[in-house]
Amino acid sequence: MNTIRRKRKKSAEDWLVDGVAYGFALILMVSILLPFMQVVTISMSPASVVNETGFHLFPTKFNFSGYEQISTDPNFWHSYLITIFRTVAGTAAGVLVTVLTAYPLAKSNLPYRKFLMMFIVFTMYFSGGMIPKYLLIKELHLANNFLVYILPCLITGFALIITRNFFMGIPAALEESAKLDGATNLQVLFQVYLPLSMPVMATISLWYCVQHWNSWMDNMLYVSKKSLYVLQYVLQTILTNGQTADMEAAADVLVHTETMKMAALVLSLIPIVCTYPFLQKYFVKGMIVGSVKG
Fold first, then answer.
1. Which of 1, 107, 154, 218 sits 20 to 30 Å CA-CA off 171?
2. pLDDT tens digit sequence for 209-226
3. C-beta of residue 155 within 8 angstroms of C-beta of residue 94
4. What is the pTM of this model?
């Protein structure tokens, strides 16, 4: 049987709300797109064009000497590998610890559950501060250690609450059925809960991934070994000083400083830009479903 659907005629208020929403989305898109276009354009432009025109959105001449110059810097690529390893290890450890913590907190019969949740929420608003954290890391001998990138970032309160709320939405009958078949708690978690939790897993994975990829402050505070420098700290040094130490030593630097900076920025964005489309389809669902319960 054919179903005839009649479209509701939009009122003036509907048109106004739609116009404001689309206008706001357009302004937001332009504010994001324009700086990104400028970065890409400058990274592909010769120094003479950058000096003459400054801000421009589309390249008039192409020159990839900025990419060539940054690609010859071994420190840049070593920090790239360190950052990739940090992101993969940190994301895997963060998701595992978050899941193992959220699962018991999703059970209504867990003793002191409300107190534990209040304690977790408290840490989202208040922290010990930079100096106590520095002293703690120093006493734990984590300074100049790769683990300083992983251990302090193992879990975040917001990711834990989103995951716990998502687990609370899974029917308890599934767990009871699995336990009647002899499953343990870990088997229930990994064989029943996790296959049903792809949206929230993708969501918190993306959070941890971006957090680790963009972090550079911990490098500046706790790490002085050059072999442990992460990409964002090297990038911050390039943006601040204009050139890496090795390039400063060279007398014949041919590449415009701004060109090299923008080329480094573009190269640092590639992994995140490539990762996001694969996780984006789960992101909205994970956020909505994980936020419906308090």
1. 154
2. 989 998 888 899 999 888
3. yes
4. 0.78
